[in-house]
Amino acid sequence: MTSVQQPSTSTKDDILMYLLRQGEATAHDLAEHFEVSAQAIRRHLKDLEAEALIEHRTVQEGMGRPNHLYQISAKGRDRYPAKYDEFALSLLDTMAATMGQDQVGTMLRKQWERKALEYRDRIGTGSLGERVARLVQIRQAEGYMSEWHEVSDGDVRQTGPGYIITEYNCAISHIAESFPSVCGHELEMFQVALTDCTVQRTHWLVRGEHRCGYLVQGLD
């Protein structure tokens, strides 16, 4: 008698991590990826959906049965960012009420300029690839699920060495919801921190995408 492989106790967390990285997946995709039975995966999906950590949309492909595409919910994303931003958000709200929104915006810009210079000092010198790797390590330590990879030939029109920085969560998501300008400052911050390169935004959580992405390219 063939036994059915049982999922590990961490499978739910693994599913959330997979959906955080991939955006969407079917139960079949997940079963294949984790090499467990579809029945076991569906039990976990049912539990995760009951906890409001994931949600699904139904798509019809051809004449067969509709398919469920699962994605992580806002509540599920909140499991990953650090919670230290809650006090900061309360403080910013108080400052906006007393000082005015414009002055708070100016203060946030100055904060990001200061952060950019701090990053640049901590990153130090070296090739662009080495500096990108060190920046990602710093971001990971700050609570971002951040990673990087080198751009392959043909992926983009390259003027020099190219790298993609991807962040699957936002450690200051609650602040960004109330003060969206902080997201715009992040792009400027990376540009100042890395120097001698261009930085372009490729994906943005604020626009409903499942990750933030930045293309970093060296200059000729």
Automatic annotation (TrEMBL):
Concerning CDD domains, the annotation shows: HTH_ARSR
Recorded hits in InterPro entries, A to Z, give: ArsR-like_HTH (IPR011991), HTH_ArsR_DNA-bd_dom (IPR001845), SUF_FeS_clus_asmb_SufR_cyano (IPR014075), WH-like_DNA-bd_sf (IPR036388), WH_DNA-bd_sf (IPR036390)
Give the Pfam families listed for this entry. HTH_5
Name listed for the protein in its UniProt record? Iron-sulfur cluster biosynthesis transcriptional regulator SufR
Which residues belong to any copy of the HTH arsR-type domain?
16-54
Q: SUPFAM superfamilies from the xrefs?
A: Winged helix' DNA-binding domain (SSF46785)
Q: Enumerate the Gene3D superfamilies for this protein.
A: Winged helix-like DNA-binding domain superfamily/Winged helix DNA-binding domain (1.10.10.10)
